[in-house]
# Entry
Amino acid sequence: MNVESLRSNVSQGSQSAEIRIAKAAITICFLFVASWTPYAVMAMIGSFGDASVLTPGVTMIPALACKLVACLDPWVYAISHPRYRVELQNRLPWLAIKEESETQSTVTGQTTVTQTTATAEAAQPASAPATS
# Structure
């Protein structure tokens, strides 16, 4: 955050990029801890507890939870991006995402170049050496 954004109340309604990044990072960290805790508990039970309760089916659940979170992480990053949220709002209005679209537009200049065949032929040298 810069000092100008702290002094003025220009963008009170919109969140800064730092806040959005922090929310995504906190969500990713929470998902990491939530997915690896069952795996750590299972490893502790296997090392120091009664290993007979750890059947192959029971040990598969924490492993699948870890893999599921690895698949969810890109979605967390995508949903935290404002342009992606605007596009989701446009394509799937039933999700009820209330994201304001960006009103800034960039002006690009277009230069059109037209050349007729007569000027193109005139630009070519008349005496081209013959290749043999």
